[in-house]
């Protein structure tokens, strides 16, 4: 049994902050004891990591990634090996990725494919949600079995007609199923039927640049779909988690529902907090780098997102990491924005960008950890194994230097993508050391991980329901 002692740091969880030492035994947290306490004085270990002047925080839980994800005739450019390595560099020690059901095929086939993509390749632990692309009697039956085996959440799309789209009847039926089997419905809430009309009209009028992607995917159509999803969930009696919320009008829908004590949750992503339609308007097709759905919004939406993160109208920050290289992939949409593969890179930078929000006064340190670690773990049935530092938890932990300065850039990032959405952005704070189940994956700024260390984690049910 290997033991590790982390000494001298400020331990931060969603619940508290204290100068404390952390003892790790056999891949798990054995004890956390206040600095200079008798308990801390009794700690002995094979190796000691000095965390003086550093934060000691739980490893990040990124509940929304797409590694090796098929979209628009291509695949996201990070596979499970490169994507989880980049996650580790950024202090994220668990990802929940989306297995995909292909139309006309069983959930089981999709899930098996995703297990095959990930098995033996991950640097950090991973779990799966299931994307439903074909809700029928067989799919509904299979959902029960998936919940039993630890795939406890199901994403549906009100967008992308003809690809991932589910109609309201299919959505209602799947929600009724999760109401019965304890699963959590996740929703991509945009009115895709209306958006497709606007896309066609924009292209016919010669408005083909990336910025039109943002213009046709209107905030009102996100708000409308969010409202509809909430009402369908009410009718079904099921909880609802709305992914990648970007419009202030959609936040209002969530806030109203939560004000009524409905089990409705929402996530946003760093791109909606830091980037805007200004980026989509970058010249020379540069805006293609920022094409994702829901789209980036005008800057005015950001204040509502930050506020909702503070007031708990939004509970989780995930990345929706879905990178496509500019060269050869984003370029598929030159002359037609609707052919630009949707998605942005980000799995490496979530912990840092949210720490920057602490520096900027948008979030407290504990809320940073709550949004990035504890609540995603609770939301998706991983807590307290993941998302906190407490006896018995997996020793997934980050030693974070809150004073270090860094500049985000494609030159230095580890994601397998040829641009950074945050090129040149200065960040205060940096991941120094990362442990996954007690094993170093990043050690004082050097990579120490290995493909295959990461294990599949079956999940329990959502832990935020009364
Ligand atoms: O643009 C995005 N978000 N791509 C990934 C697929 C999705 O809708 O989450
Ligand atoms: Zn099949
Ligand atoms: Zn989506
Ligand atoms: Zn996504």
TrEMBL record:
Its EC number is 3.5.2.2. One of its GO terms (molecular function) is dihydropyrimidinase activity. Coiled coil: none annotated. Residues 55-422 form the Amidohydrolase-related domain. InterPro entries: Amidohydro-rel, Hydantoinase/dihydroPyrase, Metal-dep_hydrolase_composite, Metal_Hydrolase, Metallo-dep_Hydrolases_sf. Pfam families: Amidohydro_1 (PF01979). Keywords: Hydrolase, Metal-binding. Its cofactor is Zn(2+). PANTHER family: COLLAPSIN RESPONSE MEDIATOR PROTEIN, HYDRANTOINASE/DIHYDROPYRIMIDINASE FAMILY MEMBER. Belongs to the metallo-dependent hydrolases superfamily. Hydantoinase/dihydropyrimidinase family. This is Dihydropyrimidinase. It comes from Streptomyces oryzae. The lineage of its organism: Bacteria, Bacillati, Actinomycetota, Actinomycetes, Kitasatosporales.
